[in-house]
Design goal:
six-stranded mixed beta sheet; 4 helices; 26% helix; 23% strand; globular
């Protein structure tokens, strides 16, 4: 049944974000848990957010590449990591380029201890560091924030 009136609605675009999670040996279980808490909060807080979450250390295992959209949070929370060890952030960029993933924004959860002059995905980068970690290395490659800043609301 039609009333003859048109009620406008908001059509929102999906925002695609590529998220890299450093699972190298220097990341503690506590830091990993903080990273995951922030990612789940992002997924729950922004319904139009489509995230591809990739866990990396010195390589990326195909099983550590998860698309999170809608019910993907459960898959992310249940995920068991298939790599760890040293740190080479360039492996993330090589993997993304091999897969032809294209995104305007990369959010990298890391402790900031990466190689000098890493290969980067051509996108804007935000590096999210655990509390009390120094941004000295990664600040050359993009914006940096600390999880302590997020808690304070800065």
């Amino acid at each position: 049944y039609s009333t003859g009136y048109y009620m406008p609605s908001v059509i929102r675009e999906n925002l695609q974000v590529l998220i890299g999670i450093d699972v190298s040996g220097s990341i503690s279980q506590s830091e990993y848990n903080e990273f995951m808490t922030e990612i789940v909060s992002m997924a729950r807080g922004f319904t139009q957010l489509k995230m591809r979450v990739i866990f990396w250390a010195t390589h990326v295992d195909e099983r550590d590449d998860i698309e999170v959209y809608g019910n993907g949070i459960d898959t992310l929370m249940e995920h068991k990591i298939h790599n760890s060890g040293g740190t080479e952030m360039s492996c993330f960029a090589r993997y993304v380029q091999d897969k032809s993933y294209n995104t305007p924004v990369v959010i990298m959860f890391t402790d900031g201890f990466i190689e000098n002059d890493p290969q980067l995905v051509p996108a804007r980068h935000l590096f999210v560091l655990p509390k009390n970690n120094s941004p000295e290395i990664v600040q050359k490659y993009g914006e940096v924030c600390s999880l302590s800043d997020i808690e304070k609301g800065s």
